[in-house]
Specification:
Length: 351
């Protein structure tokens, strides 16, 4: 039974004696079993000696309570430390049979697996690097875009199939054509379907000359197969200055392909159509004995330049947009785009 009152001096004395005997007991333990016995005796949560001394704290007069508490904590810590050092002594003693039986020092260690950059990230870094050497600065734009930047400012007319709700991830779903038309007039949000948006974002904020690349995710509700995935990456290039021509475009694409694939790679351009370029081309490079499609490109349409306040009489530009997965897959001979996004570390580990 605890006394009704106990002087602070007595309380401190009890604690000091306790610390003393606990330290002696721990030091005397010859094996983990003995140490554990001592631990229960002194530190046991139910009937440990420390616990019973602690109960006396309530009997220490109020004004001394704080001091008592501090002392109690100090002693608790020193007993704990004494226990831990005894434990280290017994477990670290490799000559003793009393070691932790679950630990076998002769087993090989556990390998620490260092992560690595995803192959797409590696490709992005490399492409950025190549374009950087050609004087193109990286630029970014939001992945949640509005209709204006994804279509309107890029000269993509209202009725263009690329704006179809079924071809895009709009963030609000219209229940009817009428509702759809109404939402359209409000500049609805969508996950961007192309990085061409960044052309607009950059030109809105800067005056020519412009020379940027933008690499990032785009989204289209395609069913996944070996060459399609509803999320993929594009690299977009834009150069606007006085007298920029298709010859500049072709040179940049050729240097780009040759740098990436590591050889003098022939590039050809074929006529095509994109609303935001005039003329528009499809670019191919010659690789592995055949022409491989690269992506779209062209001379920036005057309407696009006007939409950002540039004067098409004074400046011209080229733009291109290429799929990053395709470049990465060609380089690494990856045969199915889905491998890239299944996150199987056995696959990813190889790059
Ligand atoms: N944005 C087009 C697409 O996603 C690719 C593209 C074509 C980008 C022509 C361009 C361009 O900058 O000039 O299919």
């Amino acid at each position: 039974m605890s006394a009704i009152t106990m002087s602070i001096e007595d309380f401190v004395k009890q604690l000091d004696e306790l610390a003393q005997s606990a330290t002696v007991a721990f030091a005397a333990a010859q094996d983990p079993a003995q140490l554990d016995e001592a631990r229960v005796e002194f530190l046991g949560a139910k009937n440990g000696q420390l616990k019973s001394v602690q109960k006396n704290m309530g009997a220490v007069p109020g004004p001394n309570r704080k001091e008592a508490g501090l002392k109690l904590n100090a002693v608790k810590n020193s007993i704990q430390t004494a226990f831990e050092s005894a434990q280290a002594r017994l477990l670290g003693d490799t000559g003793s049979e009393a070691r932790d039986p679950t630990f076998d020092a002769t087993l090989p260690g556990t390998h620490f697996h260092v992560g690595r950059l995803h192959p797409i990230t590696q490709t992005i870094n490399e492409l950025k690097d190549i374009m950087g050497r050609l004087g193109f600065t990286p630029a970014e734009g939001p992945e949640i875009e509005d209709d204006y930047h994804n279509f309107e400012a890029l000269n993509i007319p209202r009725a263009h199939p690329a704006r179809d709700p079924l071809e895009n991830f709009y963030l609000s779903v219209a229940q009817s054509q009428a509702e759809h038309d109404a939402t359209f007039s409000e500049n609805p949000l969508l996950l961007r379907s192309q990085t061409s948006t960044v052309q607009i974002r950059v030109m809105e904020k800067t005056q020519p000359p412009v020379r940027i690349v933008s690499l990032g995710r785009v989204y289209r509700p395609d069913t996944a197969d070996w060459s399609h995935y509803p999320m993929f990456h594009q690299i977009e290039g834009l150069m606007v200055d006085e007298h920029v021509t298709l010859a500049d475009l072709k040179t940049v694409l050729k240097l780009f392909a040759s740098n990436y694939l590591g050889d003098a790679v022939p590039v050809r351009i074929r006529p095509s159509f994109f609303p935001f370029t005039e003329p528009s081309v499809e670019a191919d490079y010659f690789w592995d004995g055949k022409w491989v499609e690269f992506g779209g490109a062209g001379i920036v349409d005057p309407n696009v330049l006007r939409s950002v306040g540039y004067d098409p009489e004074k400046v011209s530009g080229f733009a291109f947009g290429l799929g990053i997965e395709r470049l990465c897959m060609i380089r690494h001979q990856i045969t199915d785009i889905r491998y890239l996004f299944t996150n199987d570390v056995r696959f990813l580990h190889q790059f």
